[in-house]
Amino acid sequence: MDAVIISCGTELTTGQCVDTNSAWLSSQLTPVGVHVVEHVTVGDEVAQLVPVIRRAFEAANLVIITGGLGPTLDDITREAIAAALGVPLVENAGALTQIRALFERWQRSMPESNRRQAMIPRGCEVIPNPRGTAPGIRLIQGDRSLYAFPGIPAEMQVMFHATVLPELHAAAGGATIASARLLCFGISEAKLGEILSDFMQRGRNPSIGTTASQAILSVRALAEGASPEEARELLQADINEIRRRLGTVVFGEGDDTLEAVVARLLIEKHKTIATAESCTGGLLAKRLTDISGSSAYFLRGYVTYADAAKVELLGVPANLISRHGAVSEPAAEAMAIGCRLAAGSDYTLSITGIAGPSGGSPPEKPVGLVYIGLAHSAGVETLRVLCGDHLTRDEIRDRSCKTAFNLLRLRLLGVERSKAG
Known about the structure:
This protein has helices at 10-13, 21-29, 46-59, 77-85, 93-105, 153-162, 164-172, 189-195, 228-246, 258-268, 283-289, 307-314, 318-324, 329-343, 393-413, and strands spanning 2-8, 35-42, 62-66, 89-91, 119-121, 125-127, 136-141, 144-149, 176-184, 207-213, 216-225, 250-253, 273-277, 298-303, 347-353, 369-376, 379-386. By secondary structure, it is of the alpha/beta class. It folds into three domains: 2-172, Molybdenum Cofactor Biosythetic Enzyme, Chain A; 176-253, Alpha-Beta Plaits (2-Layer Sandwich); 258-419, Maf protein, CATH 3.90.950.20. Helix 3 packs across helix 4 (77-85). The chain is elongated, with a radius of gyration of 28 Å.
């Protein structure tokens, strides 16, 4: 079954709000064997929405519309559906009764404008809304279905689970799609594609694809099966082989973050960490302590932005900074060692660099140059990272933190960097 999801709202097309409904709906439809072939976002204009609805209803078995069912004049989804179907809007007595009952429960009088929400295209059914005043709309024509829900996520999700999902489960007859997402760091998208090229052939089941976002590469897998067990079996076979090929480049799955994976390893191994930061301004410490239970592994963090702070708080020799500069391998090494001595932690991470957009002195020290230090009981290791001056200040800081976490992750796993991929 193919599906098209339509999001209605000028606040979406102008960028004032982000459409989260389409992503959520896709995440619900995929596991029950529905192929979402298109997401469409349309402003609050009947003339724009009508042809989109007509085209979607011709192209897909399932059309879901969110938004535009409110009481104001810019809520035009009802009118657009009626126009697309060539039918008039008629007042639905049951819907009006439900709306009035809500206002009575709230001990408020119902504004006359809310009566608009009881206008339903002729031939369509009403979907009750237990959490708001906007009823949904349902139309079944042969093997094609159209649903319209309010744009408020909490209302839409409850109504979707009560109506669409049970019908899809019944229609699927056990057929399903199993999905998984592996997360990778420390490899280029091109190299990843080469390694998995045979998995990424069109028409293959499972289907494998890759996505890059903020230096994290995702390998997504979708397996179709006549039953959940068959789909999971097909999926797991591919996931196992992909993990084997990529090795420690894979750091997690689903919604994992590098810092969350590092936190789990620290807890598992009963180890502690402290941080010493310059250009990242405490971002390492923030991300480590964003995780619930971080007191089990995080001892303290130093933000030593000024050279004097590196000397006073971390014991970095002043003549070392004079000779090599604060952005250098020796400085990152000394920061990591000094932090470990001061904190008494098992591990320390240090970061010093030039986050820009000013402050660089190419070619020796351009914007985006970062040094990372990792101190532990066996000594200290450093890593030179050239993020590139094409990145923004926030992107350089983000990439520096992720690289530092990955360095620590590999150390906790006992993996040599040269063999990490």
